[in-house]
Every structure is written in C-alpha cells, then in structure tokens.
C-alpha cells in the first residue's frame, strides 16, 4: 500500500495552475493568486481513496528548470494544465511538457500524466479535437479533463483522477521495451 500521493501541476504561464489549487482548497474562485501556491496536504480521511495527498504548484517566475526537474522526479502523477482557449498552450503539451516529464523520470518507468484543460467557462468549442491525437501519441497520459477554476467545474474530479492514476494506473507504466 502506498503511503501518500504527490500531485504536481505544470504547464505554460497563466493557464490557471495556482487558481485551480486555490479553488479546490477554498471552494471558491480566488480573484487574486500568488505566482505559486504553498504545498498543500489533504488528509487521508477527506480524499476519495483515503490516502494523504500532497498538491504541488509550479511557477516559472519563481522556480528554476532544475527545481522543476526535481519536483517532477518526486511526483507520483503530473497534471499538465493548458488553457482550452489557447492552441499555443496545447501545442506545448507535446513539444515541451510531456518530453520534460519523461526525461525527468527514470529510464524504466513513466510518471502518469493527466491533461487538464482549464478555463472551460470561456470556452467556444471543445479542445478534444486537439487533445485526442496527443492522448493517442503518449501512452503515459491516463486521462484528460476540461474544468474551470472560475465556476468550480470538475475541480474535485481532476484531483480524484490524479489520485486514481497513481493508485490504479491503467496505462503500462513499466516499459520493458525501453530496457536494454
Ligand atoms: P503562473 O504561475 O504564472 O504560471 O500562472 P498560473 O498557471 O498559476 O495561472 P494563475 O492561476 O495565476 O491564473 C492566471 C489568470 O487566469 C488569472 O487572471 C486567473 O484569474 C485566470 N484564471 C484562472 N483560472 C481561470 C478559469 O477557470 N477561468 C477564467 N475565466 N479565468 C481563470
Ligand atoms: Mg501560478
């Protein structure tokens, strides 16, 4: 049995990583947020899977690339957050974030990834058309979810999916073909 779960949020600046964490904690949308939220720990008895869960924010304005890599190594699951209204933040999922997560992980196992499309309250069309090819390309992506820190849509679901990805992974995280 795993003793706790570390969930790390990464993604392009201003996609709403800090707002998502603060919305989860306070159950309301914070108009003003710091660049980076303090690490929070959710006690076991209030998590769906009854495991203490740590949620860690990342902000390029406060952390170096080395610090980011260290946090990725410590994480059990990484939420790559994008803005559903911004193609450039979606493009960066495959050009930057997934390769970075994979390069920080050890050679034989992959860290599960969840794609989190935030700001669905401002959304025109669904981002799924752009997201599905990325999901097909990278088996380490467990699932994707569209949510809104602003109207609190799918916030608790997102953290539940992240917890579930660690405790009940569906993708083959062990990759024997990579082992020479
Ligand atoms: P960095 O720390 O700079 O990387 O940014 P971040 O990803 O933590 O984003 P942050 O939470 O600071 O939010 C950026 C801006 O988007 C702020 O003005 C938020 O109020 C706004 N924002 C965040 N989530 C939502 C959302 O769900 N809907 C809308 N409409 N705005 C949002
Ligand atoms: Mg932030």
Automatic annotation (TrEMBL):
Protein name per UniProt: Mitochondrial Rho GTPase
Subcellular locations according to the entry: Mitochondrion outer membrane
Family recorded in the similarity comment: Belongs to the mitochondrial Rho GTPase family.
Function noted in UniProt: Atypical mitochondrial nucleoside-triphosphatase (NTPase) involved in mitochondrial trafficking. Probably involved in control of anterograde transport of mitochondria and their subcellular distribution. Can hydrolyze GTP, ATP and UTP.
Miro domain mapped to chain residues: 2-168
Subunit structure, as described in the record: Homodimer.
């Amino acid at each position: 049995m795993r003793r706790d779960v570390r969930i790390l949020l990464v993604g392009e600046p201003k996609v709403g990583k800090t707002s998502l964490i603060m919305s989860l904690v306070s159950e309301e949308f914070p108009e003003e947020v710091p660049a980076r939220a303090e690490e929070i720990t959710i006690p076991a008895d209030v998590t769906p899977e009854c495991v203490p869960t740590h949620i860690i924010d990342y902000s390029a304005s406060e952390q170096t690339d080395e610090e980011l890599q260290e946090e990725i190594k410590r994480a059990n699951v990484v939420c790559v957050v994008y803005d559903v209204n911004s193609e450039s933040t979606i493009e960066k999922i495959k050009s930057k974030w997934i390769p970075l997560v994979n390069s920080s992980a050890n050679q034989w196992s992959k860290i599960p990834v969840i794609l989190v499309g935030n700001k669905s309250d401002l959304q025109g069309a669904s981002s799924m058309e752009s997201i599905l090819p990325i999901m097909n390309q990278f088996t380490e992506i467990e699932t994707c979810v569209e949510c809104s820190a602003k109207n609190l849509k799918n916030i608790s679901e997102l953290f539940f999916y992240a917890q579930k990805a660690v405790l009940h992974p569906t993708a083959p995280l062990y990759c024997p073909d990579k082992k020479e």
